[in-house]
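Let's do one together. I've listed all components of the complex below, 528 residues spread over two lines.
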Amino acid sequence: MVLELLASGFFLKALIGGVLIAVVAPLMGTFLVLRRLSMIGDTLAHVTIAGVALGFLIQVYPLLVGLIFALLASFAIEKLRKAYKTYAELSIAIMMSGGVALASLFFTLGMSFNLNVSSYLFGSIYTLTNADIYVVAGVAVIILIAVAVFWKELFLLTFDEDAAEVTGLPVKMLNAMVTVLTALIISVSIKIVGALLISALLTIPVACSMLIARGFKQSIIFSVIIAEIAAIAGLLIAGVWSLAPGAMIVLMLIAMLIVTMIVKRGLKV
Amino acid sequence: MAIESSMNALCHQHVIQLDHVSFDYQDQSVIRDLNFAVKQRDFVGLIGSNGAGKTTLMRMIVGLLKPKTGSIELFGEPISQFKDWQRIGYVPQKNSFNPLFPATVREVVQSGVFGKRNIARKIPKADVQKCTDAMEVMRISDLATKRIGQLSGGQQQRVFLARALINNPDLLILDEPTVGIDIETQHDFFQLVQHMHQHHRMTFLMVSHDMEMIEAYLGKEPVQQSGKLKFYVKHSHEIENCVDTNLAHSLSTREAELH
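Okay, and this is what the predicted structure of the assembly comes out as:
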């Protein structure tokens, strides 16, 4: 059954796409979660669908328009955060509802184009094209290189932003880089897990690894392993029993979080 | 010869110079026309009630905030042009990080050299050694692979001190280093800092609200008062002249004497 699945081109592509996203999403997620920016992923995803919808309307590569929207949104969030300072989460709430409003507007305008809304909300991993895979792979390589080159700076920024600034790191530049890379991941994974579920791949693996890892490096490695297990197992289960693949990946992640918590508690008592 | 003259130049130079510095926060004046100079090997204690502007002043000195008016110089250089941040060790408040953060003691100490721009992305061997030395000095080597959040408050503070010392700084800035630590550990920590002041070439700036400790070491009378901020100073000429350049050696001798 599994072999049959693997032999089919569309499933293999789905698996490759899933594996690639599961490497880089938790990688960036680590830097977001540990800086208490878990909700950024969700917000950018909602804005990205608005961009994707507009892309279909104006007949421009939808993921590209989605990416542009995500980038604009991330800078708008920064501006709003400064305006409200101590109520920074307001900026996330505003952008999220703004994104949903735009998305629903564009989707209704595009009714006549026969837009398939649910494939962007929940992903449509089986329809990945070769071009999609190349785009995902390209983004994965960019993120891997960026993290490999800047991990020391990113660690200091994440652990202690003041110290990072005192030691003379270009904090603003690094913050912008994290945001841009997050926007990149989200826009390319919309087709794979869907806008409503991408946040799970950014945050849940990190939530698991935070519980068990001793150090930062270990935490990153664990979160990638956890995401990979969930992605591969989730896709296989979904393939064999014809279930929704994006949903299965997320449910696998939550199952792993529960198991991690139980095991950790068991070891402690 | 050349080394000696540059040492001399260093001694006469002001480590921190505040010139008519003012700062206001939302129309409220926090710091008004402050003039103050910290000389080489001074120990400056900064005391003030909440809202007196202690943190504001510290953040201005390390370049995180810009003064509204006036100028700040570090090691004789205007702060906007100052690039040599490795000369400054910074120990933050204890609760400046999340206790759930997954980072080992070694990772935290090592991050003291992460500000350095180097093209090689691997941590150079020399820096790894510096990290090992700094942990040795602060007696936290056996905790190297422990998660920072699992340590006691006193141990965590030693970790941050080790991180600040890793670059062998000329100026050590401590921002309320003992908040949330039990009295006995606080006492130990102050003793350690005092020892470093008396035996090494470092200059100290410490914000604290522990009157008792400040008065015990720096005297009962502030040398200067500006608004609600009080400055207590022990000048370099009030302490022994001989300096031990080897921090590790001097601290282990001290440790041996204590036991």
